[in-house]
Amino acid sequence: MRHNNFIIKIALIAGIGAIFLYPGYRRLRSFNHRLELLNGDIRILEEKNRKLREEIEALENDPFRLEERARKMGLMKEGEVLYKVIEEEENDESESGESETAGH
Fold first, then answer.
1. What is the DSSP string of 9-70?
2. Are 100 and 93 in contact (CB under 8 A)?
3. Other C-beta atoms within 10 Å of 63: how many?
4. pLDDT digits (tens, 9 = 90+) for 43-55
5. Domain coverage including residue 74
6. How many domains is the chain built from?
7. What is the Cα 88 distance to its own chain's centre?
8. pTM of the entire structure?
9. How far is it, in rounded angstroms, from Cα 54 to Cα 48?
């Protein structure tokens, strides 16, 4: 009988302990999951930073690359003239030489 009382007491203590510890355990798992996600974000950002550092180095050391980037941004060298070609839209009026409102 004493042995049964001891087992019941241990079971009660374990049950009460589980009731109080389980929410903490769930929070810990949630924090660990969030930590894994953040570590993944960090790896992605570190890779982006590495590529940006390479781009900076290339721009600092390669004048042709720097000029290419500047031209993409619309910049020109001193004394250059920008010519912009504007293509005319095609329509039926310009091809036939007549206007739709003329009625001829």
1. HHHHHHHHHHHHHHHHHHHHHHHHHHHHHHHHHHHHHHHHHHHHHHHHHHHHH-HHHHHHHH
2. yes
3. 9
4. 999 999 999 999 9
5. 2-86
6. 1
7. 39
8. 0.51
9. 10
